[in-house]
């Protein structure tokens, strides 16, 4: 065409030349519009290949029902998100709509309604279609894509046609930092939406703005994984561009060198530190001439001498360390130093009990009064002259708990006062004895009572009976029940069933997460089955062999403390 036009222009009259110039201008404009980037106009559509439907068919009727319901559902929801399905196979229609997190409810509903109209025009009679706008996007399909938490199909990639004037690698690195930080914020936020700004180059691109978003029904981990997959593709498709976005059905991001979102950004990041400037080369330095081969030979001799010496020193250090650790772990040897000074803890005068009183209280530590035995010594039941029942912890001479650890325990326990904690009554450090005196608790650990009680009320549907009536005005009933539900999930018998803390955070902060039913707690003691005495290390009449082996219904929850 160019050759023919040039020929016509050369042999034509001035009036004809003017006409052809006008034709060239119009043709160029049409070509420019045809080949312009996809970001030039909205909406951007993706038409599927899962088949077609016909006019007035059941599929079209189901689609029209969703087109009426979904815009209102999205605008009324707190997170501007909605999914739905209508009909049965083969005419079932699934749909998903998400509005940008900084959009108001009215604009959201209008955008989704327009999307249904445009999708049916741009992808006429297609059973699967998606349309994307700045403010929202939606998709409908005869395939159940809403059950997946990944971007179904290829996401669309839109780019700013302008290139940055700054160094491309530095700009791309700054964009990656901004998008990853904003992605972390979005994944941790219940709305799964985040915005941010980052300082860059005051001369060319002073600030970079970013936005990340996932559908709110995704977990925090799924959202971050989805964003990570599209952010990692940014250098491949958008390197050096002043702006761009990658939009999938489940997550998307956008960045520009101008502010494009409403409201203040969620994050503000400082500019990345520039790389250090290379050191200037020294002036007027003439290198000393070295005979060929001299430097290499000298370096080789030094390494040949130094390396074996360094290796020998390291081997000696490792060997000594291993021997020292093995000696420390040798059983049967006291780790208490000979110079231990009991006077270091005599400042707790109010807790001092003389040895004669404790001998009388325990009948000289009679085996009949022995409650049990642990890693640090035996425990005896006793009665003080004022008829107070006590439990005396007698540390053995071979105990790994030294005077410093005992001092720390005394200082800590003496400060703790609570109705649900065993109270420290006193301490004795006479005649080479180290004795801790606690109040005697005849029942088992408090956790078995609490967990059993809550579990029984859970199974009978009477959880409100364990609520403190004074709390009824402080929080809604469903919120209190939700907290108990999450607590039971966290103490399930199988550790693999217990939720991670990130999941617990999502459960507490989201009102749309469905909680699964908990299984029996690890410490729940049924009324039949295990003997209740078998779950208490310290109980009257326990045999010595049984008391030396701490038992737990959950073997991962046994904690044996060992001093450092």
From TrEMBL:
<dbReference type="GO" id="GO:0005524">
    <property type="term" value="F:ATP binding"/>
</dbReference>
<keyword id="KW-0418">Kinase</keyword>
<keyword id="KW-0067">ATP-binding</keyword>
<dbReference type="Pfam" id="PF01657">
    <property type="entry name" value="Stress-antifung"/>
</dbReference>
<dbReference type="Pfam" id="PF07714">
    <property type="entry name" value="PK_Tyr_Ser-Thr"/>
</dbReference>
<dbReference type="InterPro" id="IPR017441">
    <property type="entry name" value="Protein_kinase_ATP_BS"/>
</dbReference>
<keyword id="KW-0808">Transferase</keyword>
<keyword id="KW-0732">Signal</keyword>
<feature type="region of interest" description="Disordered">
    <location>
        <begin position="536"/>
        <end position="564"/>
    </location>
</feature>
<feature type="binding site">
    <location>
        <position position="393"/>
    </location>
    <ligand>
        <name>ATP</name>
    </ligand>
</feature>
<keyword id="KW-0472">Membrane</keyword>
<dbReference type="InterPro" id="IPR002902">
    <property type="entry name" value="GNK2"/>
</dbReference>
<protein>
    <submittedName>
        <fullName>Uncharacterized protein</fullName>
    </submittedName>
</protein>
<keyword id="KW-0547">Nucleotide-binding</keyword>
<keyword id="KW-0677">Repeat</keyword>
<dbReference type="InterPro" id="IPR038408">
    <property type="entry name" value="GNK2_sf"/>
</dbReference>
<feature type="compositionally biased region" description="Polar residues">
    <location>
        <begin position="542"/>
        <end position="557"/>
    </location>
</feature>
<dbReference type="InterPro" id="IPR011009">
    <property type="entry name" value="Kinase-like_dom_sf"/>
</dbReference>
<feature type="domain" description="Gnk2-homologous">
    <location>
        <begin position="41"/>
        <end position="145"/>
    </location>
</feature>
<feature type="domain" description="Protein kinase">
    <location>
        <begin position="365"/>
        <end position="564"/>
    </location>
</feature>
<feature type="domain" description="Gnk2-homologous">
    <location>
        <begin position="152"/>
        <end position="260"/>
    </location>
</feature>
<dbReference type="GO" id="GO:0004674">
    <property type="term" value="F:protein serine/threonine kinase activity"/>
</dbReference>
<keyword id="KW-1133">Transmembrane helix</keyword>
<feature type="transmembrane region" description="Helical">
    <location>
        <begin position="302"/>
        <end position="324"/>
    </location>
</feature>
<feature type="signal peptide">
    <location>
        <begin position="1"/>
        <end position="41"/>
    </location>
</feature>
<keyword id="KW-0723">Serine/threonine-protein kinase</keyword>
<dbReference type="GO" id="GO:0005886">
    <property type="term" value="C:plasma membrane"/>
</dbReference>
<keyword id="KW-0812">Transmembrane</keyword>
<dbReference type="InterPro" id="IPR001245">
    <property type="entry name" value="Ser-Thr/Tyr_kinase_cat_dom"/>
</dbReference>
<dbReference type="InterPro" id="IPR000719">
    <property type="entry name" value="Prot_kinase_dom"/>
</dbReference>
């Amino acid at each position: 065409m160019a050759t023919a036009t040039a020929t016509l222009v050369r042999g034509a009259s001035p009036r004809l030349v003017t006409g052809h110039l006008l034709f060239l201008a119009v043709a160029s404009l049409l070509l420019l519009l045809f080949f312009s980037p996809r970001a030039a106009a909205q909406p951007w559509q993706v038409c599927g290949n899962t088949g077609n439907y016909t006019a007035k068919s059941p599929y079209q009727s189901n689609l029209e029902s969703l087109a009426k319901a979904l815009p209102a559902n999205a605008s009324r929801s707190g997170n501007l998100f909605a999914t739905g399905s209508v009909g049965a196979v083969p005419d079932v229609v699934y749909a998903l709509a998400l509005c940008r997190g900084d959009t108001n409810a009215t604009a959201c509903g209008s955008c989704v309604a327009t999307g249904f109209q445009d999708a049916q025009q741009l992808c006429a009679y297609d059973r699967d279609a998606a349309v994307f706008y700045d403010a929202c996007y939606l998709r409908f399909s005869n395939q159940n894509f809403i059950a997946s938490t990944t971007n179904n199909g290829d996401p669309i990639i839109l780019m700013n046609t302008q290139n940055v004037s700054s160094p491309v690698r530095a700009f791309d690195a700054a964009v990656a930092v901004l998008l990853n930080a904003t992605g972390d914020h979005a994944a941790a936020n219940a709305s799964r939406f985040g915005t941010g700004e980052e300082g860059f180059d005051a001369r060319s691109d002073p600030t970079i703005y970013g936005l990340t978003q996932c559908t709110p029904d995704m977990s925090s981990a799924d959202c971050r994984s989805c964003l990570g997959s599209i952010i990692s593709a940014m250098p491949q498709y958008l390197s050096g561009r002043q702006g761009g976005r990658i939009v999938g059905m489940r997550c998307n991001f956008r960045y520009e060198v101008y502010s494009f979102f409403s409201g203040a950004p969620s994050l503000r990041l400082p500019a990345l530190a520039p790389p250090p400037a290379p050191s200037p080369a020294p002036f007027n330095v003439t290198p000393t001439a070295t005979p060929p081969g001299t430097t290499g030979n000298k370096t080789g001799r030094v390494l040949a001498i130094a390396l074996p010496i360094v290796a020998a020193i390291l081997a000696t250090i490792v060997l000594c360390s291993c021997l020292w650790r093995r000696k420390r772990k040798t059983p049967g040897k006291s780790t208490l130093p000979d110079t231990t000074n009991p006077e270091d803890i005599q400042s707790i005068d109010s807790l001092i009990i003389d040895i004669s009183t404790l001998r009388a209280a325990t009948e000289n530590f009679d085996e009949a009064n022995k409650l049990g035995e642990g890693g640090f010594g035996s425990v005896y039941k006793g009665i003080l002259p004022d008829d107070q029942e006590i439990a005396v912890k007698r540390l053995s001479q071979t105990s790994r708990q030294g005077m410093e650890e005992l001092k720390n325990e005394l200082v800590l326990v003496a400060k703790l006062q609570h109705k649900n904690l065993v109270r420290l009554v006193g301490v004795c450090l006479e005649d080479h004895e180290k004795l801790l005196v606690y109040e005697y608790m005849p029942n088992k650990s408090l956790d078995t009572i609490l967990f059993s009680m809550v579990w029984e009320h859970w199974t009978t549907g009477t959880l409100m009976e364990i609520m403190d009536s004074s709390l009824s005005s402080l929080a809604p009933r469903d919120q209190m029940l939700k907290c108990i539900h999450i607590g039971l999930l966290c103490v399930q018998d199988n550790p693999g069933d217990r939720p991670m803390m990130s999941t617990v955070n999502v459960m507490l902060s989201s009102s749309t997460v469905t909680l699964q039913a908990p299984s029996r707690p690890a410490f729940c003691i049924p009324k039949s089955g295990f003997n209740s005495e078998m779950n208490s290390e310290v109980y009257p009449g326990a045999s010595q062999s049984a008391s030396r082996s701490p038992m737990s219904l959950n073997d991962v929850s046994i904690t044996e403390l060992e001093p450092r």
